[in-house]
Amino acid sequence: MAIETAQLHHLAHLARLDLPVAEEQRLAQDLNALLGLVAQLQDAAVDALTPMAHPHDVAASLRPDRVDEIDRSSELERIAPLMQGGLFLVPKVIE
Amino acid sequence: MSALTLASLRAAGQNSPEPVERALAAAQAVAPLNALISLDAEGARRCTAATDAPLSGVPFVHKDLFCTRGLRTTCGSKMLADFVPPYDATIVERLAKAGAVTIGKANMDEFAMGSSNENSAFGPVCNPWDTTRVPGGSSGGSAALVAANVVAFATGSDTGGSVRQPAAFCGITGFKPTYGRVSRYGMVAYASSLDQAGVLARSAADCAEVLQVMAGHDPRDATSVERPVDDYRAALELGVRGLRIGVARPLFGAGVRDAMQATVHAALRELEAAGAVLVDVDLPSLPLSIPAYYVIAPAEASSNLSRYDGVRYGHRAENAKGLRDLYGRSRAEGFGTEVKRRILTGTYVLSSGYYDAYYRRAQQVRRLIADDFARAFAGVDLIAGPTTPDVAFRLGEKTADPLAMYAADINTVAVNLAGLPAISLPAGFIDGLPAGLQLIGRAFDEARLFAAGHALQSRSDWHLQLAPGAVR
Amino acid sequence: MSAWQPVIGLEIHVQLQTCSKLFSGASTAYGAEPNTQTSFVDAALPGTLPVPNAEAIRMAARFGLAVGAEVAAESIFARKNYFYPDSPKGYQISQYEQPIVSGGSVLARLDDGREIRVQLTRAHLEEDAGKSLHDAFHAASGIDLNRAGTPLIEVVSEPVLHSSAEAVAYMKAVHRLVRWLGICDGNLQEGSFRCDANVSVHQPGTPLGTRCEIKNVNSFRFVEKAIDYEIERQIRALENGERIVQETRLYDAAANKTRTMRSKEDAEDYRYFPDPDLPPIRISPAEFEALRAALPELPDARRARYLDALGLTPYDADKLTEDRAISDYFEAVLASTPGQPKLVANWINGELAAALNEAQADIGASRIGAADLAGLLARIVDGSISGKIAKDVFAAMWAREGSADAIIDARGLRQISDSGAIGSMLDALLAQFPEQVAKYRAGDAKLFQFLVGQAMKATRGQANPAQVNALLRERLDASR
After folding, report:
1. How far apart are the CA of A54 and the nearest CA of chain C, in angstroms?
2. Contact at 8 Å (CB) between B467 and B454?
3. Contact C433, C449 (CB under 8 A)
4. Are the C-beta atoms of residues B287 and B411 closer than 8 Å to each other?
5. Contacts of B296 in chain A (CB under 8 A)
6. Is the dihedral of CA B80, B84, B86, B87 positive or negative?
């Protein structure tokens, strides 16, 4: 299942990463090498095992329905690259 | 001056140079190691803790992925080079409340992805034992600063060995708690189901004191467990008499250098001499931990790092032509090569048509590995082996071959997959470079790891040896 | 050519009316200044983590129990990965493989009285996105994350609806239910209740057609129009020999048409996987027990009871189960007016509904509480006042002049039911109008009503009309 350039482009699109053309070949190689490494997973006798998403078998701890947050807009504004009128700005989105 | 410990800091008392000033000066002195990303002399001098707080006036550094209010938190990335968090991580709060004084933020592999600290946007860190070698990673700056005697302890994070491996490479003690023992709130995420904050210090005793402050339930982290924290200081005195230590054959496997095997066996004999019983155990699926880890960690990372889009904080590309361009370029410019590699890998293994073959499969293998540990722990209290297959490698030695770098994580990643606690203890030297003994415990059995670590360090002085590059 | 059959499934987004968000302690109140209800968690600051809101989980479970679904003892939050500025983490926390609610059904009643039972596929918990404002700036869109993280359940129906009328009836039934359960304010204008419609057409007996998804329609009327337009568009295309392309379409209310938003080719690969920040959500047997015990009598059950046990008309039963507050009001008045369901229903659906409508108030803001209305009806039941007078008293009560009794007493409206008093009044009346009495007796029956009117006039309407009738007839007929 080697990753070709077209698939690399698709992954880069999904991940919103503009890859410099110069890096593409190297990245595809690295990814293919890694896929070679993880191919061992296919041989493991694990079909009967429940996938393990969390280290411990515990339920999430929940919070009560309480408003305990304050207005953080000025702190958000301080770290935001571009904010105006309390809104984060992005290039115009056309729907 | 001998190795800095919490005890030596306290013993020095009133007549010693003020510990914070000494640490700031020491940090300047070892600047060529490049172990710090930010030094916060002003903030450190402003700190005035109550004298009865457990770590009152003790200078230390945070790995630069713990959010510190008002002090930039870069994660070793250009993406967050100017990010000044408006809030403190839970452990940052807890350590501050305990009186500890942050003197700065330690260098690290970008977003904690790496085993050599060569993936930092702020340049690599040098190992104080040999400045041509890596300090390990991803908590490389933290380990180097403790080894260089700048601070008595540093915080780190461990996703696949990022506390234990640099501790081993730098000849210090590194502790990775059970998943869920320490809050992850405010610790910038790499792989959420594996990440756990840890401590790097001279000794197991010092790790115990610091973890005592860090550990405990946090209502801001749904994975943090509601379970009382043991008395770690009391645990130090428990000793190892009758303790069953499983010597795990696969941890001494093919890739582990002979000298490393011999050194670690010798250290284990010290524990035996102290009363521990050594027995053989098997972890048959250990070899599968690397492929499982390098599917699961990138998968989680690819999603965790999606928030860096140049909109609300962090690097934003100039003159973006449209939203797609803003995203694509902000992320391409902000992330380094290893991060991109893992994002693309993670995107691939989660994508439609590949999820079952890779991600789901890796989660099943993860259970297999956890089951291995459960079986082994039915007969032993701790599991032992070398922390790393070899001592610290040379800067640049493995950068061209990511797979070789990944393969060297073989002895540490399984612990994260199973969510277990582990400690890396200085265990001797090979060609003048430190070697580490790793002890792995049952979930939430930190106390026994501290007991065993302290027992070893009560009858050895490997942990007190100072690196040539250390401040004396 | 055989007829086309539309096949429709709805995905209804129901915002849960918790005080705080699904994963943070920020307020969910509508209409605040931009980003003033955006916590660090909501803005997805590095290092922040989600912690689930226990009440949101209970509300979702309550919905599941109310529709007879399977409520999962263990449900899993998953990440749906996609980039969009109103999704600050780059993923939405939703549920995928193990939703909290599976199956169940909702009974919908169409305007023509026909009932359909609509099977649900599932209902899952997820967080709402923020809002993108496209018109505020020239070359930029502004992002407000106040709404980001508001809890909602997405209620997914099976594709079993066959007309826009069925779709709207179903949507209204869900709307009524979630308000009834107190889990959603049901405000369509504010977006608390929104709907995506999946529409396809086929000829019965042939495989289902390719479907199009119409996004984010936020009124019952628009759902109806959008679906009608889409059905017509698809049929026209198919009859012209075209193929339907699977795509997402937007409804443009101004133009009353749907248009392409994105085709399946650019559909995202969401890369769902279990959220590693969130261990499973578990509901214990004890919690299930408590949830079941706290479930109110549901509108369908109540409607059936009103029809069967109380003998109300379908009209009254429908009106009285449209809204929980009205229904509870009815229950409260009825409890103090035993045996008079029809009377109570008439007053609530009549005078009270009209007054509320006039004041544009809902029942919660009624100037006449259930106990007050019961006080008025008690005077009708015991014959103290007539229904006609009661309307005047009601108006006075609405004008906040006091309780029914106070108004009746102050105005001296108590009905005269003393037959002696009425009799002597009638004797005087007959003496006053000998000519009319004579004509009546001569066969002019309509003069009876004239005399009744005079009697009522003489008593300012307070004489018991039935008694007046009986006693008058007795006098006129007996002495003939």
Report:
1. 7
2. no
3. no
4. no
5. none
6. positive
Q: Per DSSP, what are the bridge partners of residue C53?
A: A63
State the smallest CA–CA distance between residue B94 and chain C in angstroms: 16
Structural domain boundaries, residue C431: 419-478
Burial class of residue A72 in the structure, from the number of CB atoms within 10 Å of its CB (0-12 exposed, 13-18 middle, 19+ buried) = buried
B78 is catalytic: no
Of B189, B222, B351, the CB nearest to C269: B351
Interface of C with B in 111-170 (CB under 8 A): 143
Nearest to B85 by CA among B327, B312, B318: B312
**Does residue B228 belong to any structural domain of this protein?**
yes
Distance (Å, rounded) from C-alpha C319 to C-alpha C335?
18
Boundary residue ending a domain (C258, C286, C314): C286
Phi, psi dihedral angles at B441 (to 5 degrees) = -115, 175
Pairwise CA distance, residues B244 & B279, whole Å: 7
Domains of chain A: which residue ranges? 1-42
Question: Distance from C224 to chain A by nearest Cα, in Å?
Answer: 23
C-alpha closest to that of C118 among C183, C178, C167? C167
B236's tokens? 């130090």
Local structure of C121: helix, strand or coil? strand
Which residue type sits at C149? G
Quick check: is B162 catalytic?
Answer: yes
CA C123/CA B179 separation, integer angstroms:
32
| For testing contact with chain B, the best of A16, A24, A43 (most B CBs within 10 A) | A16
Whether C246 is covered by a domain: the verdict is yes
- Largest alpha-carbon pair distance within chain B? 69
Residues 244-263, chain C: which have Cβ within 8 Å of A? 250, 261
Domains in chain B: how many in total? 1
Q: Give the number of B-C residue pairs with CB atoms closer than 8 Å.
A: 101
Residue C341 placed within a domain: yes
What span, in angstroms and rounded, lies between the C-alpha atoms of B123 and B205?
A: 32
The tens-digit pLDDT sequence of chain C (480 residues) is: 568 999 999 999 999 999 999 999 999 999 999 999 999 999 999 999 999 999 999 999 999 999 999 999 999 999 999 999 999 999 999 999 999 999 999 999 999 989 999 999 999 999 999 999 988 888 899 999 999 999 999 999 999 999 999 999 999 999 999 999 999 999 999 999 999 999 999 999 999 999 999 987 889 999 999 999 999 999 999 999 999 999 999 998 888 888 888 766 566 799 999 999 999 999 999 999 999 999 999 999 999 999 999 999 999 999 999 999 999 999 999 999 999 999 999 999 999 999 999 999 999 999 999 999 999 999 999 888 888 889 999 999 999 999 999 999 888 888 787 888 888 889 998 899 999 888 988 888 888 999 999 888 888 888 888 888 889 888 888 655
Distance of CA B7 to the CA centre of its chain: 23
Helix (H) or strand (E) holding C215: strand C212-217
- For domain A1-42, which CATH number applies: 1.10.20, 3.40.50, 1.10.8, 1.25.40? 1.10.20
CATH number at residue B61: 3.90.1300.10
**Which of B77, B115, B120, B138 is an active site residue?**
B138
Q: Residue for token digits 């003020």?
A: B18
Indicate if C125 and C21 belong to the same structural domain: yes
Active site residue B424: no
